[in-house]
Amino acid sequence: MTDVKFSIIMPAFNAADHIGTVLDRIPVVLQPSIKNIWIVNDGSKDLTGAVADAFALKNGSVRPVHFDKNRGYGAALKKGLSLCKDDGCEVAVCLHADGQYPPEVIPDAIGIMREKSFDIMQGSRIASGTALSGGMPVYKFLANRALTFFENIVFGLSLTDYHSGMLFYSRRAIKSLPFDSFSDSFDFDVEVIASARAHRYK
């Protein structure tokens, strides 16, 4: 459990088969600390929206937002972060609806973020050793390692998984990073890291 008030942003596109399981895996003990779970349904063609709406009826913290067409991963995150900026959460957690990132790690991750006073923190499938066992194809694993090597050179960092979408944002980052200027595509996460680096955030 954590005493930090946080919100979850869950970008979702055609995730009807997985989103319910991900929501069920969020530890019950975290409920008092959760301000909102913003599910941004990015124009899904399946029953993602219906599943999200059904969970909202059972859990008042689940707040679905529906795009009428697919706008892109980055656009979904922009919407979620804008909502987090307005809801006053201390930390925003990006959790994908397809289940590739474990919600069970949220309390420990927020604890580390608070202890280290991080503005941005990223989960890593590589450092945790779960990339291949979690279903990442070998060719994507190798490409990830190569890209991360060069990105560390460019940004002067020592991250292990630039392309992990499990990101934790402090209140400072939520309020001040120029999210609206970032890409609507999957490049969004890397642009967040680059911008945080440029702002000398920790």
Question: Reading side by side through the largest sheet, how are the strands ordered?
Answer: 3-2-1-4-6-5
Number of helices: 7
Shape: globular
What's the CATH architecture of the largest domain? Alpha-Beta Complex
Number of domains: 2
Question: What keyword list fits this structure?
Answer:
202 residues, alpha/beta, Spore Coat Polysaccharide Biosynthesis Protein SpsA, Chain A, globular
Question: How would you characterize this protein structure?
Answer:
The structure is a single chain. With 202 residues, this protein is an alpha/beta fold. It has two domains: 6-123 and 165-198, Spore Coat Polysaccharide Biosynthesis Protein SpsA, Chain A; 131-161, no CATH class. The chain is 39% helix and 16% strand. It is built from seven helices and six strands; from the N terminus they run βαβαβαβαβαβαα. The chain has helices at 19-25, 48-58, 73-87, 106-116, 138-155, 171-176, 188-198, and strands at residues 6-12, 34-42, 62-67, 91-94, 120-122, 167-170. It has a six-stranded mixed sheet, sandwiched between helices. β2 (34-42), α2 and β3 (62-67) form a beta-alpha-beta unit. It starts with 5 loop residues before the first strand and ends with a helix. The model has no long low-confidence stretch (mean pLDDT 85).
Could you give a short description of this structure?
The protein has 202 residues and is an alpha/beta fold.
Record the SSE blueprint:
Blueprint: E1 6-12, H1 19-25, E2 34-42, H2 48-58, E3 62-67, H3 73-87, E4 91-94, H4 106-116, E5 120-122, H5 138-155, E6 167-170, H6 171-176, H7 188-198
Parallel strand pairs: 1-2, 1-4, 2-3
Antiparallel strand pairs: 4-6, 5-6
